[in-house]
Amino acid sequence: MKKTTIARLGEEDVIQLIGKEWMLVTAGTPADFNTMTASWGGIGFLWNKPVAFVFVRPERYTHDFIERHERMTLSFLGAEHRDILNLCGTKSGREVDKVAATGLQPVATELGNVTFGQARLTLEGRKLYRTEMRADEFLDEAVRERWYNDRPGGGLHTVYVMEIENVWER
Q1: Comparing C-alpha atoms, which of 163, 157, 167, 24 is closest to residue 89?
Q2: Average of pLDDT values for 106-131?
Q3: Quick one: pLDDT band at residue 8, thresholds 50, 70, 90?
Q4: Do the bridges between strand 121-132 and strand 114-116 make them parallel or antiparallel, or are there none, so unpaired?
Q5: pTM for the complete prediction?
């Protein structure tokens, strides 16, 4: 037997993509959208569909956009754009125009969603499911304590599952 990674999207190691490279989670229309950096999520197969799932705290501005829109994108920019990912993960779109501050180049998809000219890979999808995490549902209390206790402004995440409808590559 040959040792290999758990999952691949083409030649991509999706665990490394999300956990190490990070992604921009974007929802809205080309005229009105917000994006944020995320490093928690996954890709798999559920309900006979290819899916991605992401975790977004309700206090994040992007959460409002995800709630209002049927679809979202997950855009992977690559290590050369870490500065963009850092800003989009630490500044709120309520106070900062992230496109102006970073030089992001919004691009409309065929379905009317937003990705970016800098993205080397974008997953575009329709929301299938959402749920609010609950403190009493943690089976490993150490995980809850590590990630949710004493975190300023940090509520439990909303989990979104989206069907991957399109994959865009640069």
Answers
A1: 24
A2: 95
A3: low
A4: unpaired
A5: 0.91
